[in-house]
TrEMBL record:
Organism phylogeny: Eukaryota, Viridiplantae, Streptophyta, Embryophyta, Tracheophyta
Top-level taxonomic group: Eukaryota
Name of the protein in question: Uncharacterized protein
Organism whose genome encodes this protein: Citrus sinensis (Sweet orange)
Length: 633
């Protein structure tokens, strides 16, 4: 196969050469001032390329060279992964370490020589999975001595001057730290913390339960299927308790920067294609909007975070009299406007008087919904239906729910509809099959289980978003929290709740005696959610959008949290050794008690998760494990 490197264009070469000439002129004018610091002649060496021996006089020209010659677009990767200073610092050190071993930083392929690596380099893909390999503290230690790039790549960032010096001091402290790649976790104060101490605990909503769809006589649509026919990573970042701040104390500048990065990331068409191509997601909204005519006919609809405008187009198609599509990304607002015009839904006031049927109903407003009153004339409480696809990984990641609740309080009529109007989080325990252990136990006939064990240990420090097979669940599924978007308060987005997981009974064909005479191992928990378009508003056709392991997969997948050590579970009495620790093979637990807190993180649009775990033995004795803390950002 030939080289995948993109050739530099003549125009780009000229631009780089012009930059060189300009920089050389500037250096000559400053030479009289710089001579005293030179060492045996010549200025300091420039910025060394991440992949080859080329040197450049500025970060901009270096990164342009990397993009054109080595298929590495630093700014694009930084934007897509929303990397802060530390994340970018780690990425640069990781790439240098991989190139030093002639290894591809994306796919991990090891080449025979650096030239072979140059020929192999390709466009980045699966960046979120790749991030798990380099988002580690050891990459905060500079791989290359006196690497000028590490101290200069952020110079073009706006309003960073006040923070760079402090950030660099923190990073350089890692020069004197021995890093063990996470094999020895923090064992002091954090191990003795409770969820109350380490999480930002808000008022706890009483669980309203979850409808038993098997016993319900009402026909509902679950992931596009009749419910009667089909029922269904990041490093752990521990911060000093006193240094944690609430959202109310975040500076306006920090929030603005996070919002710009967040909404900017949604300017990528790839993200929108992934969401629209998620048939479960898009069909659920389409059915709820198009197949409930009593709700949509003649309604004023507001779509929060419209993206391409697909939900707004459904609303216009369903007979809404007016559709207000709100989009914070400037680029996507322009795209949604173009699409509305191309499909004859654009609200063009001079021409709308003669329009009939579906024409002239949709307008796109660029900005955040919290600032909508500044962007257009709209009366408070004048909207009949709010629609939004606000859900993120683990339901609450990205914190879009707060924007929906703001719009509800500000613009929705009393008794108006919200789509979806409920959201329910579920939890279940997973076994060996949900880990990488089975894969590494037999790799082309070779036992590589030592790798699998290390992967599982590392996974205990980060939430992982991945698809879990329902056959790998070893406990029953229980409701973790239920949200009623029509009535909930803003502070109920943060919650703490306790649940108990019991061993899964299995199917009706299983031998109950065999089930009760064996134990199984629970390696952690799986979180997922259902979004409900209930009969409260969708009277003709209620719909459930489920991200459950028991239903067709979605782009949300599930969120996996791994225990520090697996817990043995058993259904019945196995002659347990009363002197043995609960949760071991000698004394399997009868159930697992969990206390989980999920709250909006100190970093805007992130969430913090804390979990306390205890195994309950056959005689009621308990064994508790230290609390685990995670950040999803």
């Amino acid at each position: 196969m030939g080289s995948n490197n993109k050739p530099e264009t003549e125009e780009t070469r000229k631009r780089i050469e012009e930059n060189h000439e300009e920089e050389e002129e500037e250096e000559e004018t400053e030479q009289d001032w710089g001579d005293w610091s030179e060492d045996d002649g010549g200025l300091e060496s420039g910025f060394l390329c991440l992949f080859c021996d080329a040197e450049y006089s500025s970060c901009d020209t270096l990164f342009e060279h990397c993009r054109l010659s080595h298929c590495f677009d630093f700014h694009s990767v930084k934007t897509e992964l929303r990397l802060d200073f530390y994340g970018s610092f780690k990425l640069i050190n990781y790439i240098r370490s991989q190139v030093a071993e002639n290894r591809c930083w994306i796919c991990g392929l090891t080449c025979q020589s650096n030239q072979d690596l140059q020929n192999h380099l390709h466009e980045a893909y699966n960046l979120k999975e790749t991030k798990l390999r380099w988002d580690k503290e050891k990459y905060l230690k500079p791989f290359m001595q006196d690497d000028k790039l590490l101290y200069s790549f952020g110079e073009d960032e706006v309003d960073e001057e006040d923070n760079d010096a402090e950030l660099m001091r923190d990073v350089m402290n890692f020069e004197n730290i021995s890093v063990d790649d996470g094999s020895s976790k923090d064992k002091s104060a954090t191990n003795n913390c409770t969820a109350d101490e380490i999480g930002k605990v808000a008022a706890v909503s009483t669980l309203n339960g979850h409808p038993n769809m098997e016993n319900s006589s009402e026909k509902m649509i679950v992931n596009g299927l009749d419910s009667r026919e089909h029922i269904g990573a990041f490093d752990s970042k521990l911060e000093d308790k006193d240094s944690r701040v609430s959202l109310l104390k975040l500076s306006a500048k920090d929030i603005k920067k996070v919002n710009e990065s967040y909404f900017g990331s949604y300017s990528s068409f790839g993200i929108h294609r992934e969401m629209i191509s998620d048939k479960v997601r898009t069909d659920s909204y389409r059915q709820a909007i198009l197949e409930n005519p009593s709700l949509m006919k003649g309604a004023v609809v507001m779509d929060i975070g419209c993206g391409t405008g697909i939900l707004s187009l459904f609303a216009a198609q369903a007979g809404a009299s007016r559709v207000i599509a709100v989009e914070a990304s400037e680029k996507m607002a322009a795209v949604a406007t173009h699409i509305a015009k191309d499909n004859d839904f654009w609200w063009d006031r001079p021409q709308s008087e003669g329009n009939i049927n579906n024409a002239g109903k949709m307008e796109v407003v660029q900005g955040m919904v919290e600032e909508l009153g500044e962007s257009m004339q709209i009366q408070p409480h004048s909207v009949d239906v709010l629609v939004s696809e606000w859900m993120g990984y683990c339901l609450l990641y990205e914190s879009m729910l707060s924007s929906v609740l703001f719009a509800r309080d500000q613009w929705l009529k009393p008794g108006g509809a919200i789509l979806p109007d409920t959201a329910t989080m579920f939890v279940a325990g997973f076994g060996r099959g949900g880990t990488s252990l089975p894969f590494w136990e037999n790799v082309y006939g070779f036992n590589m289980s030592c790798v699998g064990r290390e992967v599982v240990r590392d996974a205990a420090g980060i939430p992982i978003v991945d698809v879990v097979d329902d056959h790998d669940l070893v406990t029953d599924s229980v409701v973790l929290q239920t949200f009623d978007l029509a009535t909930m308060k803003h502070d109920e987005v943060d919650f703490t709740t306790s649940v108990e997981l019991e061993p899964k009974l299995g199917d009706s064909t299983s031998n109950s005696t065999e089930l009760r005479s064996t134990s199984t191992w629970c390696y952690g928990i799986v979180l997922w959610f259902d979004a409900g378009f209930t009969s409260r508003f969708c009277k003709e056709k209620p719909v459930v959008l489920s991200t459950s392991p028991y239903t067709p997969k979605t782009h949300w997948s599930q969120t996996i949290i791994t225990f520090r050590e697996p817990i043995a579970l058993a259904l019945g009495n196995l002659g347990a050794d009363g002197s043995a620790a609960v949760g071991t093979d000698a004394c399997p637990a009868r159930r697992i008690h969990l206390r989980v807190s999920i709250a909006r993180g100190a970093v805007h649009r992130s969430i913090d998760i804390s979990m306390e775990t205890a195994g309950v033995g056959p005689d009621g004795q308990k064994r508790s494990w230290p609390a685990q803390i995670f950040n999803l950002s």
